[in-house]
């Protein structure tokens, strides 16, 4: 059983080098870095070669889901990834150790888990949680979040101490058995950005495969959220993705 890690750089070249997480992971796992901008490819090409990281320098300007699907297909057809292997989606602004990934995969095998999430923090002291695990949202939840900044879907991580099924986890870190990712057909590429992670988890739940959250597996997330003010490009992407998910959720009810 092998581990394949998908990282997409969309102008993150300097951050990736500064965090310096990937060279350590590449010593034990298959790390594939997909550049979404030509300047990333230029900045990271030599660095990747020095650190045994596979770099993909083509098909620029894709959305989050399509990029990770591209990497999955590359791992399957070029790197011989098998169904029993683990495919990990890893944000470029995230730091995790190889030991934590190895422990996660060991737990997944022991518990026969096909889809896993981990505990993300926003600071080195691990006192500020990243709200990366949540309940599936309703139209009311989205409305309250957009208008009032109130999100009742967030799960309080301070109350979870053992591996626990959750509705969905953020795409900043996902560990999925390759055969299950294949069964789901990966991310829905109709989502350019936002909600594709909710959609993937929801479709997994429809197949009776929940996301299992492992609170003792830690990583640090240096998240920087794009401008989502009304009428900004990111806000419009978010709005479109929200309605796409809600329509799908309404027409495909969980039993």
From TrEMBL:
Keywords: Transferase. SUPFAM superfamilies: Nucleotide-diphospho-sugar transferases. Residues 40-134 form the Glycosyltransferase 2-like domain. One of its GO terms (molecular function) is transferase activity. The lineage of its organism: Bacteria, Pseudomonadati, Pseudomonadota, Gammaproteobacteria, Enterobacterales. Pfam families: Glycos_transf_2. This is Glycosyl transferase family 2. PANTHER family: RHAMNOSYLTRANSFERASE WBBL.
């Amino acid at each position: 059983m092998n581990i394949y890690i998908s990282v997409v750089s969309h102008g993150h070249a300097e951050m990736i080098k500064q965090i310096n997480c990937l060279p350590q992971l590449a010593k034990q796992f298959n790390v594939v870095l997909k550049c979404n901008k030509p300047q990333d490819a230029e900045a990271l090409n030599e660095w990747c070669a020095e650190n045994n990281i596979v770099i993909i320098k083509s098909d620029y300007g894709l959305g989050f889901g399509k990029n990770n699907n591209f990497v999955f297909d590359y791992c399957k057809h070029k790197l011989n990834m098998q169904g029993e292997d683990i495919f990990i989606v890893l944000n470029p602004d995230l730091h995790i150790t190889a030991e934590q990934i190895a422990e996660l995969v060991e737990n997944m095998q022991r518990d026969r888990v096909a889809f896993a999430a981990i505990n993300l923090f926003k600071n080195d002291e691990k006192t500020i949680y990243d709200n990366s695990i949540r309940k599936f949202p309703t139209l009311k939840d989205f409305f309250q979040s957009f208008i009032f900044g109130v999100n009742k879907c967030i799960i309080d991580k301070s109350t979870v101490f053992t591996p626990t099924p959750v509705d969905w986890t953020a795409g900043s870190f996902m560990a999925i058995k390759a055969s299950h990712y294949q069964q789901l057909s990966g991310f829905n590429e109709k989502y350019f950005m936002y909600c594709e992670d909710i959609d993937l988890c929801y479709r997994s739940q429809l197949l009776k495969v929940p996301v299992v959250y492992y609170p003792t597996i830690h990583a640090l997330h240096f998240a920087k959220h794009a401008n989502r003010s009304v009428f900004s490009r990111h806000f419009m992407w978010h709005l479109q993705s929200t309605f796409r998910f809600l329509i799908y959720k309404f027409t495909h009810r969980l039993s």
